[in-house]
Each structure stands twice: as structure tokens, then as C-alpha cells.
Amino acid sequence: MERDEYYRMAELEAAMWWYRALHAHLAADLAGLRLPAGARLLDAGCGTGGLLRYLNDALPGLAPEGVEFDPEAAALARQKSGRPVVVGSVNALPYAPASFDAIVSADVLCHAGVQPGQAWAEWLRCLKPGGWLLLNLPAYGWMASAHDRHVHNARRYTASGAKAEALAAGFAPVRAGYWNSLLFPLMLLHRLTSGTKQSSDVQAYPPWLDASLFAVTALERRLHGMNIRLPFGGSVWLLAQKPS
Questions:
Q1: What mean pLDDT is predicted for residues 78-95?
Q2: List of E strands, the chain
Q3: How far apart are CA 93 and CA 96, in angstroms?
Q4: How far is CA 17 from the centre of its chain?
């Protein structure tokens, strides 16, 4: 990932509506799993630590930790979250088999440096039998943006494509769908009018606009909790279980 984008993410991930919505969405899905107290949770590809810190605060009964390929980002994540973070790759996780009750990974499988087959196999290996994998992935190849270029994303997903990969890797059951659906028309308009020429999608927004966008995602999160979901969106979510 480009250095400037790392620093931009580290500065804005606690405040920008997109990251706040992503963190809240993943935390809600993890809370719904009703993991036992003290359950070991890995943030695989934790970046600069925003999600790890959020999970530590929002799910106090769990024991989250992180792994991050970039040493500088890992150091930032360790400082920001106060949680253990090791340097390592999702292609070859530095953990023993059956180490974790759950693994969460946000926008990592899409990176150019990740080998999908190896990452799926490593997630399966490191989960305990019956353990859960929760992924967030960017949707639709034709929605690629400047941010994809800056963070070296090589692929985007559909819900059906991500589900097929999880099943082929040995996970079952697997559920997948889309979120950030209510704002998707605005996202699409933005892509059509700016293409990949904009400097970055990671930026500070005027407070009123940031609050408005986050409020829409909060409404969608409530609908998601009621199993009311739309068949499209800016991101793909996937929840899979390692067979017992």
C-alpha cells in the first residue's frame, strides 16, 4: 500500500463515516455470533488498527488481536488499539492450527499481495472447529476507484463469487450478501463522474455530510438486523463457519 494512503487511513479511520460504518457493521455481525467470554478473535490484515480498537471497545468480552503484513502499519495498530499485533501475512499466518474462535478480515482478500487460495486455507486452518470467518470485500470490478489503486487492490467481488470461493475452500455453512446498499446510487454516480481520476476516496467530509451519510448506514444496519437486505451494494459481506 502507498505510504500516503496508510497515513491518511490512520488519521481518518476513527472519524470518517465509511470506516465508522464498516466497523459498526462488522461489530454487530460478530456480536450476533454470541461468542463465549474470552473468545480469541483475529483481525487478519488489521492495517493501522482502527477496526481492532473498535472491536476491543465494542466487544469487551472478547480477546481481539491483529496480524498485519506491513511493519509500520502493525506498529501503528499496536499503539492505537493497545492489543497484540504481530507482523505476518494472511498467506501464511504465524499461528498454530485451531487458534481462534473467530477471524474477521476487512478488505484484505482483494489486495494484490494476497493469494486467495492460500488465504482461504490459512483462515480455515487457524480457526477452531465450528469457528467463524467474517469478511468484508469491495463489490463489483467495474466499481474500482483511486483508493483501489492506492491500496493495491487487484480484485473486487460479487456475493455469489465470494460464497463460491468459501465453499470451495471447505467452509460450510456460508452466507453472503451486500451492504452499503442505500447509498449505492450515490456511489455509482460518483464513480461514473470521476472514474479513477480522483486523488483518494479517503478524505474528511464536512461534518453535516459525514453525519448524514453515517445516519443512512445506521438505518441500513437496523434493516440488516431484521434480515431486510437489498441484492446490491458497495461492499460484500460474508459469514462462514469451519465445519465441526
A1: 97
A2: 40-44, 63-68, 85-87, 100-106, 127-138, 174-179, 235-241
A3: 8
A4: 15
